[in-house]
Design brief:
With 152 residues, the chain is α+β, with helices and mostly antiparallel strands. It is built from three helices and seven strands. Strands 1, 2, 3, 4, 5, 6 and 7 form a seven-stranded mixed beta sheet that branches. The longest helix is centred in the first third of the chain and has 22 residues.
Length: 152
């Protein structure tokens, strides 16, 4: 890859994916929502969740995470295909956590992403979560979860 702009785009998209995981882990829903375009869609088909627009993404993810006693998400780099001011990619996910009702689980999943270049840099235009493996065996360990980040 000799095109420095393409390299820079890939680095920025990978940083965007890292910011998403960081914001989710820290329960910083305002920052998380800011990573999406205004008209973005975030979906979890297996849970019948479809959130449209930044405000709904912010509220919906906050509502879902409020159900978790603790939650850990690890994101691993995946493919990125650049097409001008749009890009497509996948990120590989390993998660574990326990819900407040004591149900727990571990999974491996994929995010199927569409990114859009904006005046503020690359943002998620669509993010679809696909579970590939789910284990609901009770987790023997313990965890902690931060309080949601203060909103400004």
């Amino acid at each position: 890859m000799r095109d420095f702009e393409a390299v820079a785009d890939r680095v920025e998209i990978e940083a965007l994916r890292g910011e998403f995981t960081d914001a989710a882990m820290l329960r910083d829903y305002d920052r998380l929502a800011s990573l999406f375009t205004e008209d973005a869609v975030c979906e979890i088909p297996e849970a019948q969740v479809k959130l449209s627009g930044r405000a709904e993404i912010r509220t919906g993810i906050g509502r879902m995470q409020a159900q978790w006693e603790f939650f850990v998400q690890n994101t691993h780099p995946g493919a990125i295909r650049l097409e001008g001011d749009t890009a497509y990619g996948r990120a590989y996910i390993h998660e574990l956590g326990r819900m407040r009702d004591s149900m727990s689980g571990m999974n491996f999943a994929l995010y199927h992403d569409r990114y859009r270049r904006t005046a503020d840099g690359w943002k998620f235009a669509d993010r679809v979560y696909e579970i590939r493996y789910l284990d609901t065996t009770p987790l023997p360990g313990s965890g902690s979860s931060p309080e949601p980040a203060a909103t400004s």
